[in-house]
Amino acid sequence: MSLIDVKLDELEEKLGYSFKNRELLYRALTHTSYAFEKKDVTENYEVLEFLGDSVIGLIVSEKLVERFPEKSEGELSQIRAFLVSEPSLAKLARSVDLGKFIFLGKGEIKSGGKEKDSILCDVFESIFGAIYLDSNFETAKKIFENKFIDEMWQILEKTRTYKDYKSYLQEITQRDFKTIPQYRVIKEEGPEHSKEFTVECWVNDYVSVASGKSKKEAEQLAAEKMLEKLGIL
Question: Which 3 state secondary structure label does DSSP give 232?
């Protein structure tokens, strides 16, 4: 048995799911840097990540409607955006030590790729894209419920990041500083379907920086950091 097969076996055991087509799992774990270095590897996880993003989004949406029937559509959207954000999905990935299973190029390994939130989040999504293609949506949902739902609720209970920090920050700065926060995108990275945005937030001489999978998410995280700098949180 090859080292790759040993890796795949261990991850399948952690997930509680055996792939009918193991090539899908291998592809879901293959970073672009690894595919570039290995001439016999022609595919990476990006398309599966694109699919998995939708699969996880629907699973989380269903669970939120079940858990919070009294909340409005706007409130549910805010909570979902937080739960499917890069930091949250990276935490779920770490709960099964996903980083150790990812196939990375040498340079990416040296730069700590196995612990990067962006890569862990991408691979977590790609895994669920692969499960969906290998089986169906109900199977993907069952695995999420069995392996990750408790951790997801714990993440939600331990933080208030899903709240509208931008609005809260604006209220505070208008009241105390007679100004409003300014936001600017300073970096965009990644392929078109999976970009990461880095945003700066200014309030007078204070500056905060944060990254997210959308401009909106990055601005919310930057606003949260600014509130921490100002001693509000």
Answer: coil
